[in-house]
Amino acid sequence: MGRVTTGFAAAALAMLGVLAWLIALVPVRDGAREWTGSLNPGGWMAWTFPAALFFWVIAGLLLTFTWLAIRFPETPRRGVLGIATTRGDRLFVSLLGSAFICLAWLGIIGTPAWGGLAIALLYAAAVFRWV
């Protein structure tokens, strides 16, 4: 178990390094960081810090749940849907549902999407508790 923990600690440090690098890429205009400015000006894709942070969080969740699955194995449990799910299954269901919630929020209400994020977090908490 020592090598696994050491490997995941190294991965966590690498993730922190990537986060620091992403923050360093945020453009500065008039002495203030422009958090929604392009991280790659002139590039083919409009990468912004919030978009990059989204994918960074997903990668962090996958690393965390992989570590949890190795360190604390679990048996599937049955929830209100009557299907057996593991932590990884519930993570997938919560991420998929959260994507639809945020898309619906943007389509119906528009920006900013903070309300959709709050609903998505409540949905994810319910999935992990009852599914």
Secondary structure elements and their pairing?
Blueprint: H1 2-25, E1 28-29, E2 32-33, H2 49-71, E3 77-78, E4 84-85, H3 87-108, H4 114-130
Antiparallel strand pairs: 1-2, 3-4
Helix pairs in contact: 1-2, 3-4
Name the helicity range: 55-70%
Unreliable segments of 5+ consecutive residues: none
Please state the structural category: mainly alpha
Strand content: 5-15%
Shape annotation? flat
Largest sheet, strands/sense/barrel: 2 strands, antiparallel
What is the number of E strands?
Answer: 4
H/I helix tally: 4
Distance between the termini: 30 Å
Description of the structure:
There is one protein chain. The chain is mainly alpha-helical and 131 residues long. It has helices at residues 2-25, 49-71, 87-108, 114-130; strands at 28-29, 32-33, 77-78, 84-85. The chain has a two-stranded antiparallel sheet. A two-stranded antiparallel sheet has the order 3-4. The longest helix has 24 residues, at 2-25. The chain is flat and about 55 Å long. The mean pLDDT is 90.
Q: Could you provide a short overview of the structure?
A:
The chain has four helices and four strands; from the N terminus they run αββαββαα. By secondary structure, the chain is mostly helical.
Key traits:
131 residues; mainly alpha; two-stranded antiparallel sheet; two-stranded antiparallel ribbon; 4 helices; 4 strands; 6% strand; flat
